[in-house]
Specification:
The protein is mainly α. It has 19 helices and no strands.
Length: 463
């Protein structure tokens, strides 16, 4: 058992880290039109500002989750906070698109260390009976970050320029480092002594990069070939992992543990369907409605505020009720909100946009905490790092696929041009198409969520 001080500090550190990265992601979305104008970026290149970060984070999440299980979760978490904070401060000085994107990759690298270990540390410290509650608090921190991001990001961009967003991350990173070094006692490495699968990590990274880059150059022939090549690499990764004695990702977890595999698939589908919402609605409000970054941020805040309010409640519910039921209802609400956004046009009233954001936010709150609880409750202690990293990978891969879908549709409808008034009708058409496809995807995800099996095998309550 861990003492109350260790529990409090572990939760505080995880909450700070869970706040930091979503705050940055959502605030950058609001600043994108301003960044696009400064650097003269076309629609597809502009999409790479969030995507380069997500790609780097997704590539390294599972490898760092495994390294943390072997060498210590606190050690990897600390290194991640340092790298993330340094990268944030350097982005302030970037003067070219290539420098900006390179530093976004470094930020993603640091984020992989943070997200590969944060939830694992909390799960290591708190007993199963308290897990849903604390994971709900942790998820709530993610959504508070997402809530404040558009609002503060819009304000900072308008008053001080887009670089101030990245500068704002630095103090929070320093506070997190203080608590890790001075207050968080102990280390967690239940897989200590096991070997790290370097070959598997390299194959995994190549497969993700190839698929994602292929998506950005679709519908060209090179894009199709790259995506197919990437899928072959994913197949090679699965074969490799089944053969090595100490795998990066224990495939038996996915093959034999239905709750673990289906919960991860449900997360992948949910994030694939929802991540581009903020990106698209932010561009819509600023291009079509003529909103300032701050005004757009004030509207976008509706979705994550609802998430932050209802996530702890949903987490507590999943301690006593089946997570798959709570999460599946949540996916239903999300699919409804996305379907309504498919009717977005130039005359859409503000109440319609805010209502849809609230519906999606409520659905996501019901889904996320119970789904996280289902994943972490379905595996044993020595897999906590990989379980946490796997869930994080599903989230980031889903977010990448969501942005990949936007890139493909932008390339098909608009082409590689800056979004200027003559392209607004095509931009609107691409937004509606993306929301329709996302709603269909989320609807299909309800079935993955329902088939995951039980977590609480005792009918009277949690095990």
């Amino acid at each position: 058992m861990h003492d109350a001080e260790t529990k409090r500090t572990a939760l505080l550190v995880a909450v700070l880290a869970s706040f930091l990265t979503p705050f940055m992601v959502s605030s950058v979305n609001v600043a994108l039109p301003v960044m696009g104008r400064e650097f003269g970026m076309n629609a597809v290149l502009l999409s790479w500002v969030p995507t380069s970060y997500l790609l780097a984070a997704a590539m390294f999440l599972v490898p760092f989750g495994r390294i943390a299980d072997i060498y210590g979760r606190k050690r990897i978490f600390s290194a991640g906070i340092i790298i993330y904070t340094v990268a944030s401060s350097l982005i302030v000085l970037s003067s070219t698109v290539s420098a900006l994107l390179a530093l976004r990759v470094l930020q993603g690298f640091g984020s992989a260390m943070i997200f590969g270990t944060g939830i694992a540390i909390v799960t290591s410290v708190f007993p199963p009976a308290e897990r849903g509650r604390v994971l709900g608090i942790n998820v709530s921190a993610v959504y508070i970050g997402l809530s404040l991001g558009p609002f503060l990001g819009g304000f900072l961009t308008q008053q001080f320029g887009w670089r101030s967003i990245f500068l704002a991350n630095v103090p929070a990173g320093l506070v997190a480092m203080y608590f890790i070094v001075r207050r968080l006692k102990g280390e967690w490495a239940e897989a200590q002594g096991e070997r790290f699968d370097l070959g598997g990590a390299l194959i995994y990274a190549v497969s993700l990069v190839t698929v994602m880059y292929g998506l950005t150059v679709l519908p060209g022939r090179s894009g199709v070939l790259l995506v197919l090549f990437g899928l072959l690499w994913i197949g090679a990764f699965i074969v490799w992992e089944l053969r090595v004695p100490s795998p990066l990702l224990d495939m038996r977890l996915l093959i034999t543990n239905v709750t673990f595999s289906m919960s991860n698939i449900a997360a992948l589908i949910n994030y694939s369907a929802t991540f581009a919402v903020t990106f698209l609605v932010s561009l819509y409000l600023q291009y079509i409605k003529g909103f300032t970054p701050r005004q757009a941020g004030m509207v976008l805040i509706a979705q994550p505020i609802v998430m932050a309010v209802f996530s702890p409640l949903a987490g507590r519910m999943s301690d006593t009720r089946e997570p798959r039921i709570v999460a599946s209802i949540g996916m239903g609400f999300t699919a409804l909100g996305l379907a309504l956004f498919a009717f977005l046009d130039e005359q859409a009233p503000l109440w319609f946009i805010i209502t849809n954001l609230i519906i999606i936010g409520f659905g996501f709150a019901l889904f996320s905490s119970p789904n996280t609880n289902a994943v972490m409750s379905s595996i044993d202690r020595r897999h906590y790092g990989v379980g946490s990293a796997m869930l994080g990978t599903m989230r980031l891969t889903g977010q990448m696929l969501s942005m990949g879908l936007v890139m493909v549709i932008f390339a098909l409808y608009i082409g590689r041009v800056q979004i200027t008034p003559e392209y607004y009708p095509l931009f609107l058409k691409s937004v509606k198409t993306t929301f329709l496809l996302s709603a269909l995807l989320c609807g299909a995800g309800i079935f993955a969520s329902l088939t995951r099996g039980k977590v609480h095998h005792d009918a009277a309550g949690p095990s």
